[in-house]
Design a protein that fits this description.
The structure is a homodimer of 461-residue chains. Helix content of chain A is 38%, strand content 20%. By secondary structure, the first copy, chain A, is an alpha+beta fold. The first copy, chain A, has 4 domains: 94 residues, Uridine Diphospho-n-acetylenolpyruvylglucosamine Reductase, domain 2, CATH 3.30.43; 117 residues, Uridine Diphospho-n-acetylenolpyruvylglucosamine Reductase, domain 3, CATH 3.30.465; 107 residues, Alpha-Beta Plaits; 85 residues, Alpha-Beta Plaits. In chain A, the strands form 4 sheets. A 7-stranded antiparallel β-sheet of chain A has the order 15-12-14-13-17-18-16, sandwiched between helices. Chain A has a 5-stranded antiparallel β-sheet with strand order 5-6-10-8-9, with helices on both faces. In chain A, strand 17 and strand 18 form a beta hairpin.
């Protein structure tokens, strides 16, 4: 037995003494925890543990620290850049048993949940109190995972991302210590912003075990609409003018013609196969009406067709389900394919240019890649439909993705608006942050000197 | 000459070689830079430098790093907790020459300014483009200083604080390296949140030399109002119900009866001497009307009097000038006094209780301390009117302040909502953050191993 194997064996024995049958070395279980929803190749961890409490997570991390074994936290495994793939093996900490809403403070519009509560689960739980939590990445992800990747989604244009909506975190550090990053006040000037050091750190600085979140009252009125455009530029200009006028639109999403074709086929709809905006307005009855009228005028001036309205909850849900199913819809365009999902975010003044140049790259390529975007934030996604075992396809997707990212950076944008760095965007970190990467590295080294927390992600140490 | 004195002499010589007469060892200049607007006792730095560029700041820091001399950045000196007092001597970096707006991107609703541009200067500059920047601490502070202390003010209830409104920073690190913390995209998931590591770090991790900020379109309609209440509880309940209904009130400020008396006398006004809310609504004409009607109903149900309206810009400015002058108004209640300004922030459900218990402490004390608050955030201030050379008064202010802070912490609040830790709140850091302080300390040590950046602030190293 090698030294590494001996360490792993000792650690596994200690973990079993701690958690009993909540430690698994079963190959199927390990394989399930060796991948995410990305195109990145899986890697099998040495063991998977299922702690029930923050204290148990702390004990698990202490054992891993003692043996210098990698520890990777796992929520729903729905990330898109290989963020949770245990590329160095080690122990995966599946938080599935930590799925309780710990408390809801309706008066303060906040709540605290264990890390594995999903966004839909939380919304079910709080709906009767007239509350909702707006952040909605495509998947029904865990709120701990969403904090770890600084997730956002369709509502971010109005409600912000996880950056703005996490009030506090409970975190297990690399040596097993437990901290709470903040109290429950809406704002604070008391020292370094520990909460936002961990939001977006992708498990490389500690394991998030509980999350305190801002909540919102369910608006008095909500209305959704779909509007097709003659040109992509017209759709994007509608978005830009809406944002610049300060209209508090709740959602403003772009689907290109290819994506609309996919959505129609998958969700059995008959929208025009054109560049299309999906919109939603929240407010009072009068406020929603006023917002909607203004945006309709803007759209009409930019070659937009009539708004197809959905105001009943049932119809709105159907419309947004179609929007949220784009991944599956895209996949159905090429049965059996893998999806290489990528995203960038640029200042909104550069959005049309960035999208149009990218579409030109795609027109010249043999790969298909539908486009969908949270365009109110300047954020859009491509989903390359590839066979990940075909090197030529991977190479072509990489070529277009490289061009996309470098284009976004040249426009003062970022290599990822919401998917995180994981494995897939590591090579762009220096191009984006320059010397800033060395500051991140110094923080990583200070908080995880043995590099056991999700090693090999975001940047090399 | 001691070794320390020799180091200081060598450093000063090198600084003079770099900056010529933009280095001052004049006693008056040093004294001016040895204090802020707080009650904390001043301390004279060894020299004051006036760099013109980020590169010059970098060279200054490199010289200080070589000689292990403290470096303290200085903007307008308007902080309230001793945040810029150079308690260990060393070099004060006065950024007064770095006062240019570098660019405004009206389409993207953002701008980049040098650190010493003040909030009022920026607002003058962008007004013609129909834009404004909402964050307004009482003083006309520099935007670099506001970022460094995570400032907020009266508009935070709607627009957020510096935490939410800084998009990127240029920072000179402790070894003189220059980084830009982020690009200009509205959101990003690309690695650690460097921007928010420096926002609120009070100059202890680096010197902020430029700030990229979010801007907002000037609303189509704005209306301000003043409303007096029979009871403090009625005023606070009005705030709570307004927030819980999700009304996007732009400002909702509480002044207690004592503060109203001060404001009346100082600004020659004749408001009732009662607990009073100052409100402002932003939006479309119809939206403002709708918001105002709803809040008037809520106020009436809670014992509020009629709303006294100000809708013309001139009248609104007069109203808010009175609000912003509370420090001077308070001071006039006891001519020649010093003000010990303190602030806490609690979850809004605990706000009435926190304020009422604090008012009870004050009723039993021989000290006067008017109360004013950004109550929509759960944040309020006391201004103890003291003679800072009288130990008995200091002791009494400290006693009440200690009780106030521990009360706020027990209510899951924070020891400071917006003034920062500086010197004055250091002793509460462990009570608030527990083991979290060690994480802050580890970050400080990683980024400033020789502890030269504003040493002795926030926590002891």
């Amino acid at each position: 037995m090698t030294l590494a194997a001996e360490q792993t064996q000792s650690a596994t024995d200690e973990l079993k003494a701690l958690l009993g049958d909540r430690v698994s070395t079963n190959t199927t279980v390990r394989d399930t925890h060796g991948k995410d929803e990305s195109w990145h190749h899986p890697h099998r961890p040495d063991a998977v543990v299922f702690p029930n409490t923050t204290e148990e997570v702390s004990e698990v991390v202490k054992i891993c620290a003692k043996h210098k074994l990698p520890v990777v936290a796992y929520g729903t495994g729905t990330c898109l850049e290989g963020n949770v793939i245990p590329t160095s093996g080690g122990i995966v900490v599946d938080l599935m048993n930590m799925d309780q809403v710990l408390r809801v403070n309706a008066e303060d519009l906040d709540c605290t949940v264990q890390a594995r509560v999903t966004r839909k689960q939380l919304n079910e739980y709080i709906r009767d109190q007239g509350l909702f939590f707006p952040i909605d990445p495509g998947a029904d992800a865990s709120l701990g995972g969403m904090a770890a990747t600084r997730a956002s989604g369709t509502n971010a244009v109005r409600y912000g991302t996880m950056r703005e909506n996490v009030l506090a975190l409970t975190v297990v550090l690399a040596d097993g210590r437990i901290i709470k990053t903040s109290k429950r006040a809406r704002k604070s000037a008391a020292g370094y912003d520990l909460t936002r050091i961990f939001v977006g750190s992708e498990g490389t600085l500690g394991i998030i075990t509980a999350v305190t979140l801002r909540l919102y009252g369910i608006p008095e009125a909500m209305a959704s609409a779909v509007c097709s455009f003659d040109t992509l530029a017209g759709a994007v200009d509608t978005v830009i003018q809406t944002i610049q006028l300060g209209i508090p639109v709740a959602r403003i999403e772009l689907l290109d013609d290819l994506e609309m074709d996919a959505v129609n086929k998958f969700s059995k709809l008959d929208y025009p196969v054109k560049d299309t905006l999906f919109l939603e307005f929240h407010g009072t009855e009068a406020g929603v009406k006023e917002q909607a009228e203004t945006v309709q005028e803007i759209a009409a001036e930019n070659g937009g067709g009539d708004f197809k309205w959905a105001t009943k909850a049932e119809d709105r849900n159907k419309l947004w389900a179609a929007r949220h199913d784009v991944t599956y819809a895209s996949k159905a365009l090429r049965p059996g394919c893998d999806i290489w999902a990528t995203d960038v975010c640029v200042p909104i003044s550069r959005l049309a240019e960035c999208i149009l140049e990218t579409k030109k790259d795609l027109a010249d390529s043999f790969l298909m890649a539908p486009l969908v975007g949270h365009v109110g934030d300047g954020n859009f996604h491509l989903g390359f439909l590839i066979d990940r075992d075909d090197p030529k396809e991977l190479e072509e997707a990489e070529r277009i993705n490289d061009r996309l990212v470098m284009r976004a950076l040249a426009m003062e944008g970022t290599c990822t608006g919401e998917h995180g760095i994981g494995l897939g965007k590591m090579k762009f970190m220096t191009a984006e942050h320059g010397e800033g990467v060395s500051v991140m590295r110094a923080i990583k080294k200070a908080l995880d000197p043995d590099n056991i927390m999700n090693p090999g992600k975001i940047f090399t140490v």
